[in-house]
Design brief:
The protein has a seven-stranded mixed beta sheet. Helix 7 links the parallel strand 2 and strand 3. The protein has a single domain, classed as Alpha-Beta Complex (Spore Coat Polysaccharide Biosynthesis Protein SpsA, Chain A). The N terminus is likely disordered. It is an alpha/beta fold. The protein starts with a helix and ends in a 7-residue tail after the last helix. The relative contact order is 0.12. The chain has 17 helices and twelve strands. The structure holds guanosine-5'-triphosphate and magnesium ion. The site of guanosine-5'-triphosphate (GTP) has 11 residues, from helix 9. Guanosine-5'-triphosphate binds next to helix 9.
Length: 381
């Protein structure tokens, strides 16, 4: 029959040998299902891999620290690449000599790739505190699926070399991680305070007291050494998004907040931020419902990738919204993250305990916001 001859081959086959074809189709469907669930897309796979026990804690505890108890549950937190071993070791040697050899606070090292045995051994030897090495899971180190990736790549190309790391996707992943995920890493669960340390920084004075204990004793929640102004191109819509957050969650904004420190007379963001590469802070602050709601709100807006929102302005805006001035402390310690530094103001302390030049301190720079912070005065404390 002509009608049968013009039918597509599959239909014809179903009609002539229905049992066989149905079996083949069933097998194909089964194979597709197996493939789909055995090889889920990257985010799902990462969730299964996240925090594999072997990555969590590979440290051998230093025998001398077996019975050591600290006044505060605190740790240094270092995000670093294996390739930064030598610059990091130099920073840690200074931190140990100026402070930690007398306290032996532990270290948590985090990386989006597994640390090498060489890196771990070098850190164990450079430090007096116990070392813990952690892996950052994929979902904490990636562009989230709701961000328009072609638009983000276009934005990166457009920003390119106009600002530092303007064209870098990995820098954006780092900023997102330092904004919203470092404090959720299970290796930090046993700590209440953290001190962020980066490869290549210098500690240029003795630190004759315990900054962790200082925060705990005074009830302060956030400490910084340097403040600066952000590159406006990196945060074009951060202030508008923050204002949208404030409108959505008015109950989270502290009555006597310090938003006035980072706003212009016209009510815009003045770009001031605490330089987050050196912050000593309460982890409870970051784990609070208000901070997490703020980070999630920003993350949904996509600005970590569609622009280049830095963790420093994000932390600072959160501090300004959620804390009172009396809960924030300027640590006048000797600290150098090129190209800026803080060198203590007290001349005698400086002469006795430092190798920095006070004239070079960032506080004298017109881009510093530290004087403005100190001059906010106790009125809203
Ligand atoms: N594991 C890992 N760590 C990174 C990566 N990118 C940056 N970091 C770490 O994140 C922190 C901030 O990165 P930096 O390159 O120092 O960024 P920055 O302080 O804004 O700029 P510079 O210090 O001037 O380069 C440092 O502790 C780096 O070691 C990365 O791709 N992988
Ligand atoms: Mg740095």
């Amino acid at each position: 029959m002509p009608a049968v001859q013009t039918q597509p081959g599959l239909v014809r086959a179903v009609q002539t040998q229905p049992g066989l074809v149905r079996a083949v189709l069933l097998l194909a469907a089964l194979a597709a299902a197996v493939l789909l669930f055995a090889r889920p897309p990257p985010v799902w796979r990462a969730r299964a891999l996240a925090y594999a026990p072997a990555d969590l804690c590979e440290s051998r505890l230093k025998p001398a620290n077996a019975n050591l108890t600290h006044p505060v549950r605190a740790a240094f937190v270092v995000l670093a690449r294996n390739s930064e071993l030598h610059t990091l070791r130099a920073s840690i040697r200074q931190l140990e000599d100026q402070f930690n050899a007398r306290h032996r606070y532990p270290y948590v090292f985090l990386n989006d790739e597994p640390f090498t045995a060489e890196f771990k051994q070098a850190m164990e030897w450079a430090t007096t505190g116990d070392c813990h090495f952690g892996f950052v899971p994929y979902e904490h180190w990636s562009m989230p699926p709701w961000v328009d990736r072609p638009r983000a790549l276009w934005a990166m190309r457009a920003m390119g070399a106009t600002v530092p790391y303007g064209g870098s996707e990995s820098y954006r992943k780092m900023c997102r991680f330092e904004s919203g995920f470092f404090y959720r890493h299970p290796l930090l669960d046993e700590y209440d305070y953290y001190w962020r340390v980066e490869p290549g920084v210098e500690f240029t004075c003795a630190i004759p007291y315990d900054p962790f204990k200082y925060l705990a004793d005074t009830g302060k929640l956030y400490g910084f050494a340097i403040s600066l102004r952000e590159f406006p191109a990196t945060v074009r819509t951060l202030w508008a998004t923050t204002n949208a957050f404030r409108a959505a969650y008015p109950e989270y904004i502290a009555a006597n907040n310090t938003l006035r420190w980072l706003t212009t007379p016209g009510g815009e963001y003045n770009m001031c931020h605490f330089w987050s590469n050196m912050e000593i802070a309460s982890l409870a602050f970051f784990r609070s419902p208000e901070y997490e709601a703020y980070f999630d709100f920003l993350d949904r807006a996509g600005g970590f990738f569609l622009e280049r929102w830095g963790d420093a302005p994000v932390h600072s805006l959160a501090v300004a919204m959620f804390l009172r001035k009396s809960q924030v402390h300027f640590f006048d310690i000797g600290y150098h993250h090129p190209p800026f530094q803080n060198c203590p103001t007290d001349p005698e302390f400086n002469a006795r305990h430092c190798f920095c030049n006070q004239n070079r301190s960032a506080i004298h720079n017109s881009d510093s916001c530290t004087r403005a912070w100190l001059e906010l005065g106790p009125s809203n404390a």
